[in-house]
Amino acid sequence: MRSLPRRAAAPILAVLLAVPLAGAAAPTLAQVQVQSLAPPDLFSTAATQTNLGADLWKDTAPDIARDVLPRLAVKPLSPAFSDLARRVLATGANGPAGVGADPDLGAARAMALIALGEAVGADAVLDRAPGVASSALLSLAAAEAALIKGDDDKACRIGEALTIDRGASYWLRLRAFCQARAGQIDAAQLTFSLAQQQTAKQGGDADYARLMGALLAGTPAGTANLRSGINYALSRKLGLDIPAGAGTASPALKPVVLPRAAPSAMGSGGDLTAAETSDLALLRQAKGLSAFVEAAKASSASITALTRADAPLRDPVLFARAALAAGDLDTAQLIRSRLTQDQIPGATITDLALLDAMISAGSGKPDSQTLDRLVERGAQNGPKSPAQPAALLLASLGGVMSPVARGQFANFDLGKPAGSTARLVLLDEAAAMGLKGETALLALSIASETGTAGPSPADRARIAHSLAKVGLTADARAVVVEGLLALQLTK
């Protein structure tokens, strides 16, 4: 029997499931309810498994999705908001009304996943997306995902299958590379010349020109470049040192760069000392929030080993912050449990109060004692103290202040929200209505205007409260922990 198309099968399947088995008591007609299942769309395939549910986009305003999704492919986010965007976009759930069938927005979702380092997930999504060959944007996303995965053959097939806009600069550059791979040097040289003419109109790409020229001429190519999937593929084809090109890597290509090898911390005391010295240097030299989080993740294994070895740490508060930045709550708690002496290397009373706030937020237990201590430090140290905005952040997760602390907190100068008033109002409203997807998009919209540093404490607190209200509690905690970390990096 000829199988039914997927779109036709969905409502029929629902009917079949409602029909009783032979011999069973037949229900009355009023008891039979037939529901048509929503046909798959460009958002229904999961990039990776998340716990956000198939109803993620239920009742999300389509125009908010149309506004925010394209931003996420081009605007950098802080680490916590990148994680939120990655989880939301990776979820397999039918998109908002009218959005899920839009190829441009399906491509925006895929390109955002790629920009967030999820090329493998985007590739899985696009493998099941309809109409890729007839959409230049879907094809571009599919080709970039394949190149970043290292599947150059697949990328070349995608380029050949494209039915529109074949003369655009991206496709000329890809075609020249594919022709060169196939040994069609004369054709590749001609296509390369056409690509250079097109690319020049857009400001040029000197690294592509250098790499492609070297491939065609068989001459030295210099250093690897990881600015795009095509440049990465050329660098691989030329046999260049990929880790050496890490400094050129776009966010999409960072996952393919080998991480810094963690120092061996399992050997002698000399090894432990060398590991600590290396980690301290890496963390102290990190400039900005994103760089510190990357350094923390690179140092995570040796910090854990140092802590478990019960070695005396030269800067225990810094290591505890790094553990929390890397998502290792247990190590941070173990370090903190040992800080019982009167003098802590490199730390003040306020530093310990901030560390306690990070641990409290990370554990999802914003206890009143920790919050009151923050408020007390903020009141004593004045409006420039990081303890004041820290108290706001911790309170956003549901911490309860004592009457004395509330009186002190009422006089704090916490600054004005930097986010759009309209978006903040909509954020509150979406959270009150339980609109998980819309709340996440509005939060990401506000965060996208602040770059890798992330939103101000006032905006973060509002965002975290809204995320927690719709059940995105892990993301709310991460937003607060990151905000507390940022306060300590800039104080």
Condensed summary:
The protein has 491 residues and is mainly alpha-helical. The chain is 58% helix and 0% strand.
Overview of the molecule:
By secondary structure, the protein is mainly α. It has a domain at 62-254: Serine Threonine Protein Phosphatase 5, Tetratricopeptide repeat (Alpha Horseshoe), CATH 1.25.40. Helix content is 58%, strand content 0%. The protein is built from 23 helices and no strands. The protein has helices spanning 6-18, 62-68, 79-90, 103-115, 119-127, 136-149, 152-161, 169-181, 185-200, 206-217, 229-237, 269-285, 289-308, 316-325, 329-337, 349-363, 368-381, 387-395, 403-409, 421-432, 436-448, 457-469, 473-490. Helix 3 (79-90) runs antiparallel to helix 21 and helix 10 packs parallel to helix 11. It is globular. It starts with 5 loop residues before the first helix and ends with a helix. Residues 1-30 and 260-269 have low confidence and may be disordered.
Search tags:
single chain, mainly alpha, Serine Threonine Protein Phosphatase 5, Tetratricopeptide repeat, globular, 58% helix
